[in-house]
Amino acid sequence: MVAIFKDELHDQLGTWPLGYIPYGGADFGEIEAIAESVGDGDDSAFCEAWVAAADRLMSDGERAAEAGHLRSARESFLRAACFYGKSFHPLFGRPVDPRVVEGSRKQISAFNRGLALGDEPVAPHRIPFETASLLAYVIPAQGHANEVRPLVIFTNGYDAAITDLFFASAVAASQRGYHALIFDGPGQGTTLIEHAMTLRPDWESVIKVVVDFAQTLPNVDPQKIALCGWSLGGYLAPRAASGEHRLAACVADPALPSVADGFRAYAMKLGASREEAACLAEMPEPLMTRLEHIIATDRKLQWSVVKRGYWVNGALTLRDYFASVERFTMDGRVEEIRCPSLFTLAEDDALAAGTQRFFDELRCAKTLVRFSRDQGAGEHCEMRNRSLVNRRVLDWLDEVLR
Prior knowledge:
The two termini are 38 Å apart. The chain folds into 3 domains: 118 residues, acylaminoacyl peptidase (de novo design (two linked rop proteins)), CATH 1.20.1440.110; 208 residues, 3-Layer(aba) Sandwich (Rossmann fold), CATH 3.40.50.1820; 65 residues, no CATH class. Strands 1-2-4-3-5-6-7-8 form an 8-stranded mixed β-sheet, with helices on both faces. Helix 9 links the parallel strand 5 and strand 6. Helices cover 47% and strands 13% of the residues. By secondary structure, it is of the alpha/beta class. The radius of gyration is 20 Å and the shape is globular.
């Protein structure tokens, strides 16, 4: 796979919008130009390049709106929202960088302006949840906004923003005739940034209030509500389905039976016994020190574990973090998934290592869809051929919810 950004972490984060090209989130030339602007620069340069591109799109949108070209204005504002959302990802961590807060707020402001200009204007909702509320949007089925139709709830993973859900999944679902609901759950997007609410393993408690809300919508068939999760959402969605039985279908892209298993396997490669790795938070101090050193000297691991992981999970140390990820497991809950379920398995996705085992343990109606590198879809969440996974998933939903 050819890199676009010079820095490996920047390439990981900055090429995510390639998957949004079919749905209006970006074009290849824009991403390439941003990468050229970043060059050999650091995370600040990455942030500045995406913000500058987003600012230009906002100006384009303003000019189009003043001239009465509302469709062009809408497209520019929505694309700007995507770009603002990309700008602050390398800056994750505690204390929260002001540029993360500013970028998130600009993202939501641009998103709201774009959605308000649609043929069926969309406004944000707030779903009450414990001490805060969850930002949510209901994207209507194109051409069928007021008809009672099935609804697909899309749930995010570790670090994606609500606009990522829109471009990666909701637009395709809307084009296919589904209403789509996207939201920021605990540990995600605005719920983390604005309310400091961290991630939690019992996603059934989150989806319960989202389904409660969905069933109040006049254009939603309450018997045909599906849940789709991508990336870490591939754990969250099945976990929710194991406890929220009003769901008519569940999709996990890819399906994750445990968040801790990947860390467990890595610890064993470094010399931990199976018994020692069985409880990550209680591993011997020399091994923990070695892991801390490896993470500290690896830029991508430093970002994913210390900057992102500690913040999202509410951890202060590696032991804290390991203790928190141990709780994200489907042990004892797989048989509680009763609705038809589709799992994806991409050929080169390291996070899909446990998908086949998870699939084999299911006792509900089930489908496994594989994606390969020769389809351009072998990587995590099939991001360089996102339209392919959307076709497969929506075809399956058409059959299950018919």
